[in-house]
Amino acid sequence: MNMQAMLKQAQKLQKEMMDAQEQINNMEFTGKSSLVTAKVNGRKELIDIKIDLEEIDKDDIEMIQDMIVVAINDAFKQVDKETEEKMGKYTKGMPGLF
After folding, report:
1. Where are the domains of the chain?
2. So what's the architecture of 32-90 in CATH?
3. Strands, E, within the chain: which ranges?
4. The pTM is what?
5. Per-residue pLDDT, 27
């Protein structure tokens, strides 16, 4: 393969990677715990959080805080999984790139 063809192939792969990353960035992921639902985007930015107040004892603020953390981390794990699925084919042999 000549140098020009290799460069063209590299540019094509770069564009595919950028398109895949943009697609992930625009997706929404919903993480849940028993009382909390958190929605994040592919950039791991919190978009929305809902707390089921009917099920909560007003004196148990610490539990609510823990449930928020669990829900957000669940959503972040979904982002990581989607990123690995979509970007993994580009990063084989280069761990930690995404």
Report:
1. 32-90
2. 2-Layer Sandwich (3.30)
3. 28-32, 36-41, 46-51
4. 0.70
5. 95
